[in-house]
Amino acid sequence: MDYALMMTAYAKRAVRKLTQQDLLYESLRRAILDGDIGRGTRLASSRALAEQLGIARNSVLYAYERLVEEGFVSATRHGSVVNAVSAGAVATPTQTTQREEPVPALARRVRELPPRRAGRDGSKALRPGVPALDAFPYAQWRTAVERALR
């Protein structure tokens, strides 16, 4: 498949100007939905595709990761393989571009987390760099400091 041609064709139809990462993602997504890239098709490696398109490899990795997140592609040891996708089961382009909905697996894991206890000031936010002062061994600390000063 000629990925450069696919991206150029999608860029002409795009309503707004897209970054290289978004353009690659959207064109691959559209090609999968339209059936131009069929189920079980192995996508080009990120290095080869980046070299072919003349873009950064991270741009290709970003596009592939988004496709994996949204279920269009499965990442295996042998490369990225296109999944079977029905057009009715896919979110609209505005939903996928804006990412309003969290990834279902992540949302499920977050719901399974135990509830957090409120801090002294009533906030529930994690505050990096602030120790748990209620668990600090003050008596042992004082003894160690006095011994060091003597």
Radius of gyration: 25 Å
Into which percentage range does the β-strand content fall? 5-15%
**Run of helices and strands:** HHHHEEHHH
Helix content: 40-55%
Q: How many structural domains are formed by the residues? A: 1
What is the CATH architecture descriptor?
Orthogonal Bundle
The number of distinct β-strands equals: 2
Envelope shape = elongated
Number of helices in the DSSP assignment? 7
Low-confidence runs (pLDDT<50, min 5 residues)? Answer: 91-100
Termini separation: 78 Å
CATH topology: Arc Repressor Mutant, subunit A
SSE class? mainly alpha
Largest sheet: 2 strands, antiparallel
CATH superfamily caption: Winged helix-like DNA-binding domain superfamily/Winged helix DNA-binding domain
The overall pLDDT, averaged over residues, is 75
**Within the largest sheet, what's the order of strands?**
1-2
Given this structure, which CATH class is correct?
Mainly Alpha
